[in-house]
Design a protein that fits this description.
Elements: H1 3-6, E1 12-13, E2 16-17, E3 32-35, E4 39-43, H2 63-69, H3 72-76, E5 82-87, E6 91-98, E7 101-106, E8 118-123, E9 127-128, H4 132-135, E10 141-144, E11 148-152, E12 160-165, E13 169-176, E14 179-183, E15 189-193, E16 197-200, H5 211-219, E17 231-232, E18 235-236, H6 238-248, H7 257-260, E19 265-267, E20 277-281, H8 282-285, E21 289-297, E22 300-303, E23 312-315, E24 325-330
Antiparallel strand pairs: 1-2, 3-6, 3-9, 4-5, 6-7, 7-8, 10-13, 10-16, 11-12, 13-14, 14-15, 17-18, 19-24, 20-21, 20-24, 21-22, 22-23
Amino acid sequence: MKKWLLMLLMVSMAGMILTPAGLAKEVGKGDIAFVDVSVLTVWAEPNLDRPIDAPAVSNPVDHWKWTTDMTYEEKLWLVGKLETQALYGMKVNVLEEAGDWVKISVEGQPTPREESGYPGWVPKVQLTNNERLEDLSNRPFATVTVPTASLYEDRALSKEFMEVSFNTRLPVMAEQGNKVLVATPADGNKWFDLADIEIYESEQDIPKPTADDLLATGELFLDLPYLWAGVSGFGFDCSGFTHTIYKAHGITIPRDSSIQAQHGTFVEREDLQKGDLVFFARNNGTGAVHHVGMYIGEGKMIHSPNTASTVEIVVIDESSYASSYHSGRRYLEN
């Protein structure tokens, strides 16, 4: 059957009509678009990618292959070359075009650099401006609560469509027992295992977390390798880790550690509580903030430290950050 005929098929499932995937169009300047890959890596400039970065700039992406194939030196090269990441289904604003690349801003990642969201460059092929998700924005959504989860083509969960990250959010179309049908940006409806997600009516309905909730979420990622600019269950940088933990619990904080250190409520070191963010700065703690962790009590923090390391728990005063403590900030209301 010709492709254009397939695009017109409407398939009835669970009492819902599925929107054909092929109606998505190439994005352009001024568009509101959606991330169409499991993890969208946002670059400082267009066309910076190397041959080894091919799995990260394609559609679909292979994030595990990308991160595991790189040597330490190749990962370290990414510092300053990448800006942030965005997850499958996230909304972005298209600001500029340059050939096959576009400059975007990622909504929900606050920064003083761009009012509409965190800016940077991505390949056009990784975005879609299919209006389907916009039309479904008021539906309940499923959010992934495990480090990574599979989306499936079929209700039997026998054919994987895509592995997606923690905190990926997609509109719910139907629930059938322990299976949940969700809308995707450009590929119709797919299935989640209910065990991998939570369903909320809206972001406002996400329960207010306790400090223990935040820490339990952080501990899901112990031993996960660091990735500069990372915000996903495939790899975090330091502020991507704290930003994502809070975001998953319905609290939006700035994307970068230096800006996180300027918001929330200042906390004296002796008054730190579990869930507070702790910041570290150059010049023995008096200079520019360059690192953030989450305080877990008893002088310890959980953090994603650097390219050579993984998410870990350390005693602050026994770590390499002992002499660079800067401040504490509280984003969790009592």
